[in-house]
Amino acid sequence: MSLDQAAHKPHEALAALLADDMGRVNDLIAARMASEHAPRIPEVTAHLVGAGGKRLRPLLTLATAQLCGYEGPYHVHLAATVEFIHTATLLHDDVVDESAQRRGRPTANLLWDNKSSVLVGDYLFSRAFQLMVETGSLRVLDILANASATIAEGEVLQLTAAQDLATDESIYLQVVRGKTAALFSAATEVGGVIARADEAHVKALFDYGDALGIAFQIVDDLLDYQGDTAATGKNVGDDFRERKLTLPLIKAVAKADTEERAFWVRTIEKGKQEDGDLETALELLNRHGALEDTRQDALKWAQDAKDALADLPDHEIKTLLIDLADYVVARIS
């Protein structure tokens, strides 16, 4: 079941509740992705922005700002900033991963070329920093600049860790915090900061975003081995075929005997995969309880996200954020 197929969709309820603000965010994105001198920039950006997506990260910024009682204009700038950073990283990721499809459509690097994707991504990062500066908050600039650096760091770490059997759960967590959770936690934290919420509440919002992002990625990695292809848009075992050492594999490798380790060395480290290897991998994952252990980890992070909000004031948005944490893991519960 995909996020868009569940009966109760907290992100859609959030989008409906924040529709006016989200409209302003979309208008600002459209205005700032324009380029007087390089028409390819809005072409490439519009292709990706127009592909849909749930706009979850900017929604989180709008939601947390409203939850903390913010009444100024700059939550819109921050939400657009978060979306620009996210879109820039997608453009760069598709080049790095040599992807041909995203959200069911051809990727920008396929339709144009790698150079255009990288350079337009750079442009969007620059636009994001312009938007941050307009808020007049050095602290916001610090949070989002750190998140941008952490994202890049996580992607580079993944390059070296993805096919190295020495990669353990702590390194995996570092990668996930970089590639996924850093932008979630920045998106939720800056909402509290711009609203001048007290420090305990700002920390709680950061912790919520961090745990939510980690749960989100672990679920994604788990569904690669036991998801419904029609629902996820991915073939079962894509990560295995791409030799990505995600959490289920890390758990299985940690429990492997000599013969099993030789199998992982051949298929993941050396990339010498043969017919039937995916079935063997799935059998080893099940034999060592790696899939169930991964599921439990995702559920634990979702619970951590909910627990982080405990001391925040009761509010319709708080309820939806709690529901969102449950919703992220609903596909594996």
From TrEMBL:
InterPro entries: Isoprenoid_synthase_dom_sf (IPR008949), Polyprenyl_synt (IPR000092), Polyprenyl_synt_CS (IPR033749). Keywords: Magnesium, Metal-binding, Transferase. This is Polyprenyl synthetase family protein. The keyword Magnesium applies. Its cofactor is Mg(2+). CDD domains: Trans_IPPS_HT. The keyword Transferase applies. Belongs to the FPP/GGPP synthase family. It comes from the Bacteria.
